[in-house]
Write a structure and sequence with these properties.
With about 240 residues, the protein is of the alpha+beta class. It has 3 domains: about 5-55, RNA-binding S4 domain (Structural Genomics Hypothetical 15.5 Kd Protein In mrcA-pckA Intergenic Region, Chain A), CATH 3.10.290.10; about 60-125 and about 205-230, Pseudouridine synthase I, catalytic domain, N-terminal subdomain (Alpha-Beta Plaits), CATH 3.30.70; about 130-205, Alpha-L RNA-binding motif (Alpha-Beta Plaits). It is about 25% helix and about 25% strand. The strands form 2 sheets. Strands 5, 6, 7, 8, 9, 10, 11, 12 and 13 form a 9-stranded mixed sheet that branches. A 4-stranded antiparallel sheet has the order 2-1-3-4, with no helix packed on it. α1 (about 5-10) packs across α2. It is elongated, with a radius of gyration of 22 Å.
Length: about 240
């Protein structure tokens, strides 16, 4: 990829700004001063700007502990979004949330630059489990467990069978394979037990990282990335 195009994708400099950086001798490719903004940069080549290494990877996969009060959206003019919690380079690379969590829902949120992976992870036919801890207004019963297992009938669709485990009278662990708008809350509301707090603790093979405070994120490691692609049924080098 051309140097100016790469730096633009990374959100570091526009193509015109790259010309000035190159003229000033501020960009190094594999330890050598870049001679032209259209110089080809090979995958894995070491890049540096003003002596500082540039992370030139175009593929990114992140996990965040989403806090309450933040929208899961690419942007919003009036409210803070999860993208505001990430470096600008993430948006520039198209590293977007996988599915969504409601504004007041907390917990595990994935981000990826791979649109095919994101689609497969949230498609019901992929059977990738999402696990939530839900606190409700009311007492959960064995009848609720059976109803979730049968598939909760909602106004516009019938939810796929889900596994509800009662942890305490007002708290349950729910495993679902789909994630339609407000689905988990609607399922509990259909049973007359509105959700008062909701946290996602697992997505496919990944569990919420307990070391991440609300609003913090980290890159996935190679093993986690491989596990996600395997769960989605996609080959990945």
């Amino acid at each position: 990829m051309r140097l100016d195009k790469l730096l633009s994708h990374l959100g570091i400099a526009s193509r015109s700004e790259t010309k000035a950086l190159v003229r000033g001798g501020r960009v190094l490719i594999a330890g050598e001063r870049a001679k032209s903004p259209d110089a080809e940069v090979l995958p894995g080549a070491a890049l540096a700007l003003d002596g500082r290494e540039i992370d030139a990877r175009l593929e990114r996969h992140l996990i965040m502990n989403k806090p309450a009060g933040v929208l899961t959206a690419a942007e919003d003019r009036r409210q803070k979004t999860v993208m505001d919690l990430l470096p600008p380079a993430c948006a520039a690379l198209g590293c977007m949330p996988v599915g969504r969590l409601d504004k007041d829902t907390t917990g595990l949120l994935l981000f990826t630059t791979d649109g095919v992976l994101a689609h497969r992870l949230i498609a019901p036919r992929s059977h990738v489990d999402k696990v939530y801890i839900a606190r409700v207004d009311g007492a959960l019963t064995a009848a609720d467990v059976s109803a979730f297992a049968a598939g909760i009938v909602l106004r516009d669709f019938t939810a796929l069978p889900a596994e509800l485990e009662i942890l305490s009278p007002d708290t349950g662990r729910l495993t679902v394979r789909e994630g339609k708008y407000h689905q988990v809350k609607r399922m509990f509301a259909a049973r007359g037990k509105p959700v008062t707090a909701l946290e996602r603790i697992a997505f496919g093979p990944l569990a919420l990282d307990g070391s991440l405070a609300p609003g913090e994120y980290r890159e996935l490691n190679a093993e986690e990335i491989a596990a996600l692609y395997a769960a989605a049924g996609i080959e990945h080098e």
